[in-house]
């Protein structure tokens, strides 16, 4: 079990590596924010391949970004849980509900996860307002 400090250090290092790797993916022009845009951005911020986020594995290293996508997509109202599940590799809506519940618990327990999700929600809300 990793401590919150280990998680925070890991997230900070991940974000540093991502910054070195290049700029964050840009939102496509026109229209509103899509779940696919969110997946790409979460993948960049967490240094996890977008294919792994939509993949079938349940490993925590991939589940955490996937749960972040589910929670943020619901928070921003990007679609129903069915739509979000479809964008995440054809997952059932109940799987999305479960990921949202787990993300809420992670946000309460893990400050690094809360900062990541808050930052991304604010990032995409700025796009929605413009």
Structure overview:
The protein has helices at 4-21, 35-46, 50-53, 60-76, 81-87, 93-109, 111-129. It is mostly helical and 130 residues long. The protein has a single domain, classed as Orthogonal Bundle (Chromosomal Replication Initiator Protein Dnaa, Chain: A). The protein is globular, with a radius of gyration of 14 Å. The termini are far apart.
What's the gist of this structure?
The protein has 7 helices and no strands. The chain has 130 residues and is mainly alpha-helical.
What would the keywords be for this entry?
130 residues, mainly alpha, Chromosomal Replication Initiator Protein Dnaa, Chain: A, 7 helices, 0% strand, Trp_repressor/repl_initiator, sequence-specific DNA binding
What's the name of the CATH homologous superfamily? DnaA protein, C-terminal DNA-binding domain
Biggest sheet layout: none
Shape: globular
CATH architecture: Orthogonal Bundle
């Amino acid at each position: 079990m990793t401590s919150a400090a280990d998680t925070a250090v890991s997230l900070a290092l991940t974000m540093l590596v991502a910054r070195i790797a290049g700029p964050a993916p840009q939102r496509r022009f026109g229209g509103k924010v899509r779940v696919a845009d969110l997946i790409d951005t979460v993948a960049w911020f967490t240094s996890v391949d977008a294919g792994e986020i939509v993949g079938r594995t349940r490993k925590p290293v991939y589940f955490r970004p996937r749960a972040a996508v589910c929670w943020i997509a619901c928070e921003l109202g990007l679609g129903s849980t069915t739509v979000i599940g479809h964008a995440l590799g054809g997952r059932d809506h109940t799987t999305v509900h479960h990921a949202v519940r787990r993300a809420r618990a992670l946000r309460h327990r893990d400050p690094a996860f809360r900062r990541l999700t808050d930052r991304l929600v604010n990032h995409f809300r700025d796009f929605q307002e413009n």
